[in-house]
Amino acid sequence: MRKILLIEDDVVLRENTSELLELSNYEVVNAPNGKKGVEVAKTILPDIIVCDIMMPELDGYGVLEALTNNESTQHIPFIFLSAKTERKDVRKGMDLGADDYITKPFNEEELISAIESRLAKAAILKDRREEKEAKREENEQIRSLNDLKNYFDDNGETFHFLKDTVIYEEGNNSNYIYLIISGLIKCHKLDEQGKQLTTALYKEDDLFGYTSFTQNLAYQESATAIQETELVGLSKKALTDVLNKNHKVTLELIELLTEDLAIVKDQLLQMAYSSVSKKTAQTILMFAEKLNRKPEDQIKISRNDLASVAGIATETLIRTMSSFKKQGLIEISGRTIRILDLKKLQDIC
Question: What is the pTM of this model?
């Protein structure tokens, strides 16, 4: 049953109109003045309001203005009921947002017709608002990793790190997951002998720093900027909230983590079984890829970082690179390396 709020200070007219509406199968709630009417409207949120204009304490115009400025009542259809028939009075009410204006005296058919048409219009407008809201929410959904990275850009905290600066150390609280805006990051661990092992390299547009999204686990490795780097960090809680609401991107992130695990596995197998030459060649090519360079472009990287990623001693790496240089595979100038024969280097891998 539709609920009507009738705001009218004339007791006889209020009772007669209320009876008329109840006979037409409406639930009617009465208010004797404008001030009381505003309070009742905010409490019961009626389907429609029929309101007199000339009332003590607060007139009908004041009622309409108060309800229009309230988020919970601003869309309730509003019909003025008044003996004021001058054009300026009607215009004032419509300018304030009234849906209709019925003059006294009125007949039953006129009132019921106005109420039914305004209720129908309100239902249509409500459907449109809900459809628009649904589309807005759909547009705001994060469906892919690119959408997720855009979310990092829009909502994350920006960090800048100079070359060789530690971003986090193994054992630190894992407060952030990071997106690389520019630069290059290496993640690394120390073995029992204190030798550094690089476990992963991350370049521009990569995500890193995730440990667990459900448990408060510390970082399992350290991360250092190999170049001057700009990052955007999103708190683990914020990312978890996003993933809980966007299951499709959660699956894509799981796929990314799976690929990372496969890369680490291949790296461990390479360290265990590959020859020194193969490890060195693979590492040079890996850095060239991560630095987003063409094979013929120079890459500037420390011998310690190359050795750490390759999983060999720095002295061994230097000897192998000298051999590559003599074979014409690479050119070395200080810390700078340029690949001269990409195919032969790939063949070694």
Answer: 0.46
